[in-house]
Amino acid sequence: MLTSRPTRRAACAGLIGLSVKAERPVTGGFVFESQNAGHAIRDRQQIPAPKKTIKIPLVIIGGGMSGLSAGWWLEKKGFHDFLILELEKEAGGNSRHGRNEISAYPWGAHYVPVPNTDSTLVRELFTEFGLFADGHWDERWLCHAPQERLFLHGRWQDGLEPDIGLTAEDHRQFQAFDKRIKEFRETRQFRIPMATGAPADSPLDHVNFRDWLHQNGFSSKYLDWLADYSTRDDYGAAAADTSAWAGIHYFAARDHDEKGPLTWPEGNGWILKRLLKKLQSYVHAGKPVVRISRSGTQWNVQTGDTLYQCAAVIYAAPAFLLPYLDSSVPTVKSMSWSPWLVSNLTLDRMPEEKGMERAWDNVIYNSPTLGYVVATHQNVQMRTDQTVLTHYWALSHAAPNLARREMLSTDWGAWKERILSDLERAHRDIRACVSRIDIFRNGHAMVRPTPGFLSNPERRSWVAGRERFYYASADVSGFSIFEEAQYRGVDAARRALVAVGR
Asked: H helices then E strands: how many in the chain?
């Protein structure tokens, strides 16, 4: 977590740029630059022999939402003989967050939809944190109006479903699509958590979402855009690279009458802070695991010069990393992970608007990016011109390995220019408003539910786990959202608790 501007400057010293179209300087740089640690694991750099050995019943590898959810459940059940090892200097994964003199802001996940009634674990956690009581959600954190807007044909419109300039045929197709989604919802096959409804296989999973739309008569360019935006938003992948089953799940899995979402200035960092407060004595951050091996009935987990011997392991880190830690595990070949660029822009004043007033979520039609959210939107105090915009960009235009290469080889100044050029389409004076842009390059932000993921043997092996070794990240579900991370973490904790005889 970044807690102050000097901290960010220390991490990104010397990166200062001038806008091409304005004299005003824009400062900033890259944050959370931990690629070297990850690449050291990938390249299998020499591992020193451990100097000390610690015996403990259970080790959780990974301090993101799935690992912390496993810890939350274990602690609730009165089990305390575990620890959580986290590679990064701060736990949290995609729920990390920062703060400057204006506001807190997210570095990843920034909301949780109001959970369905059958999302019992989410409701249990949120009740514990005071978000849900006596059948009511805390109004402070239900997203204030206006919630969403779309910049289309030169002005902002309410909501993300295109409305301006549509033909009668476009409207007919949207209505027909809504009807199909309602039918899919009623099958109860598309649920959250997905394990409570998903089949082992489905014909919908063997075609991509874009082709399924066209094969079913949905040819509207506006509906095509909405489908593509939605899969990029939740999965980091274009509709043409997403399983039709997963694409339909995006629209059909949630109750249609929800009032949410739940959101906070720091995004899901609000949840993270409360989990860390409960689990602070268990979390060991800045402790990258370098080797995992089996010795008889015990598991050996090495980090730095310490070897942990344990009866069971909960693996809550990305699945693609495991073969580099455990030589007995084959390299992941058929699943892929999406690279993302998340940027926080500090504004001294809000830009000019055309159309409706600014919303919490602001999206530009036909942009390669996903738009931005306003960190100060939930502020009930007097509105200020100063704010922070969190800009999201899923690099879905190329194969993930090529997009990662482009992401890492492009310097901060070039990314800054691309971001400002994107926002200029809706805000002509944006360059006169921005004073700082900090950028987080996340090379493997989330797993992609590509066609065939439901029956994919690699994913199925993660679901099954190994002897006293349980996969817990949202990778097991095949797509990365808070509810799935929590469910997989708790499911792994339940199984591990049985394995260690508790």
From this structure: 14, 24
